[in-house]
Amino acid sequence: MVAEYFVNLPFNLVKGILNFFYVWYVTGTVDFWNKEAAFLRSVERDVGFIVHIKHIADPLFGDYDVMGRIIGFFFRICFILFGFLVTATSIIFIVCIYLIWLMVPPITFWMVLTNLYYLF
Description:
It is a single chain. By secondary structure, the chain is mainly alpha-helical. The protein has one domain (about 1-120). About 90% of the residues lie in helices and about 0% in strands.
């Protein structure tokens, strides 16, 4: 029993390391982007970016005279610009967080190797 443990130790070690990278990069990536897509949908729902694009020519608050259409158009342009800025900022933030998350294992591995170098 003990001999079987030591025989299988290198195989189990490699299997565990490969499983870690699979879970970190494959499963973790899928989970990360699913959660971030839900977050971006909630941002879009809160800001209403797509709704304002679809109804850019419609007046706000049912004011169908000429002045209402002009004011509604400019308000919707402002809402679209604000929604674009919020959405773009969110996407940039999410991509930065994802890139940092991708770099955690290599940086950790590098730090362990450099500390082992100074240890011996």
